[in-house]
Structures are given as structure tokens and as C-alpha cells.
Amino acid sequence: MRPLPSATALQAFEAAGRLGSFLLAARELNVTPGAVSRRIQALEAHLGRPLFERDHKRVALTASGDEYLRDIQVPLQRIAASTERLRAGHRAEGISVCAYPTFAIRWLIPRWGRLHDRYPQIDIRLSTSLEPAAFDSGQYDLAFQILRGDEARRGLDAETLLDIDTYPVCAPALAERIHAPSDLAAHTLLHSAPRPGDWPQWLDAAGVAGIDPGGGLHFETTNLAWHAAIEGLGVAIGVEALVAEDLAAGRLVRPFEIRRRSRHPIGMVCAAGKAADPLLGSVRDWFRAEAAAG
After folding, report:
1. How many CB atoms lie within 10 A of CB 14?
2. Taking burial as the number of CB atoms within 10 A of a residue's CB, which of 74, 76, 97, 212 is the most buried?
3. Ordered structural domains, the chain, with CATH
């Protein structure tokens, strides 16, 4: 490998290029403007081309400098994030987890106390997002998200945690008036923005025609749609792993036995490079056991 530029030179160049000023870069890095200038000159000598146009009043990136800045900013950010994570690791072992809000509320939080009791020494931090976790930013160690089948190509280690079995659910009083799938035509369908295909796919799997699969009430989250169903506003599509407690408590019931299994399960995902980490492996084993226990 050809020798890389010095880290201090790259840091000085990135700050000066981003701020458009050697003086401001010097203040940010807590060095003198002369030190910034010398470090950038050393970098230019290493690269064999100028990165800045200089006059007595200002500096501006050359075309090569602008291209180089864009190329190195993300790697430098990742190095900084990784460094901070390792430094934090010396203070306390930590794992950052990302999950969809409904999955976090319905499946993770009820188990969080047991997870803490099992691993009290690990600082496990939970965040929620409607979007898949961006592992390339170094922000997350583990995520629970829908598997699409392309995870390995994207450098991820992914495994199925829970299958997604779906079926209609509603309040017990409403279920007394529903005897066949065709009866749904007389009732309000409840939809969630993150899972817009649930009703069309279930109606198709059940062979039910003559019902508008998009009609009814729409909610921002799946959890809201299920709460609306509990309140008797209509019929929602339940995900078995996530409405099990409501079914067991009698807050929701299944008016039909017809179920549909999605081709895209809920997965447990991490960056492939972290899959062998012993600490993360222990936590993943614990979640596997919880999923297997039901």
C-alpha cells in the first residue's frame, strides 16, 4: 500500500475546505493558521497538485481540491465515529439497537427488563426509525427490520427472527357482527402507513372480492391502527408476533382463521464485519432464544 497522507494533514485540509478559511480551521483545530497552512502544503506535496487557490485575502478550493474533499469527508467521519465508539467502549460496554417503532413498543420493550437483568454490564441503547438502519454510518450495532433479500450484497449479516403471519383483528364486540370475510364490506378497514399492502394482500390470499382494499381509516403507525381496532373503530390487519398479548388478553380477537405469511420476515441485522463480535453475539443469542420461546 502506498503511504497515506498524515492524519493531521487530512484533518487540516478537511476543516479548511469545509470552512473555506485557514483561520477558521485553525480555531476549530486549536492550532495556528501557519500550522494549518504547512500541513496543507505537505498534503499538496504528497499529492503532487494544489488543493487551494490562494491570494492575500482568501483561499478557495481548486477543482482537484473540491473533488478530494468530497472523497475523504465520509471516510474521515466514519473514522471519527469508530474512534469515539472504541473510546466509549473503554468506559462502558455498549450496543446501539435500532428498530421500527411498533416492533420496539410491542416486542422489544416487554423484554427489555429481562435483557437488562441478563446483561446489566452492557449499556444497550434503543432507537426507533421507520427507515432501515444505516450501518455504514457506524451509528448502530444491531437492527430489527424487514428482510428484503439483498442484505448480504450490502455487506450485512442478516437472519430471520420472526415470521410475519397476518390476519384481520378487531374488538370482540365488533367480531360478533362478522361471520364471513365478505362481511368486511360492511365494516371499516384500518390501515397503517408502514404496511400499505396488508389489506390488499390478505384479501387476495383469502379470495375475497368486491371490497375496496384501500378504503377506510389510515394511521401513521401500525400500533395506532391496532389501538383503533381495540377501540372498536374497525378491523385491522394484525401481525401475529406483535398482537399476541392483545389476543391473549381479549382486547382483540380474530374473526377468521385465514392467515397470510409474508415473504419478508422480521430480521435481526448487523454489519457483516461485526457479526463475530463476542459481546454482540451474546445479545443476538439472547434475542434468538426470546423469539424461539414465543
Report:
1. 18
2. 97
3. 7-88 (1.10.10.10), 93-161+265-293 (3.40.190.10), 165-261 (3.40.190.10)
Contacts with 138 (C-beta within 8 Å, 6 or more apart), sequence order: 78, 81, 82, 85
CB atoms within 10 A of CB 54: 12
Which amino acid is located at 121 in the chain? Answer: Q
HEC string for 96-132? EEEECHHHHHHHHHHHHHHHHHHCCCEEEEEEECCCC
How far is it, in rounded angstroms, from Cα 171 to Cα 78?
Answer: 49
Cβ–Cβ < 8 Å for 52, 16? yes
Tens digit of each residue's pLDDT (9 = 90 or more) over 222-276: 999 999 999 999 999 999 999 999 999 999 999 999 999 999 999 999 999 888 8
- Residue 94 dihedral angles phi and psi, to the nearest 5°: -140, 150
Q: How many CA atoms lie within 13 A of 31 on its CB side?
A: 16
* CA–CA distances in Å: residue 19 to residues 29, 54, 74, 171: 12, 15, 16, 59
Secondary-structure percent of the chain, ordered helix, strand, coil, rounded to 5: 50, 20, 30
pLDDT tens, position by position, 16-63: 998 888 988 888 888 898 999 999 999 999 999 999 998 777 789 999
Measured CA to CA, the distance from residue 209 to residue 182 in angstroms comes to 8
pTM of the complete model: 0.66
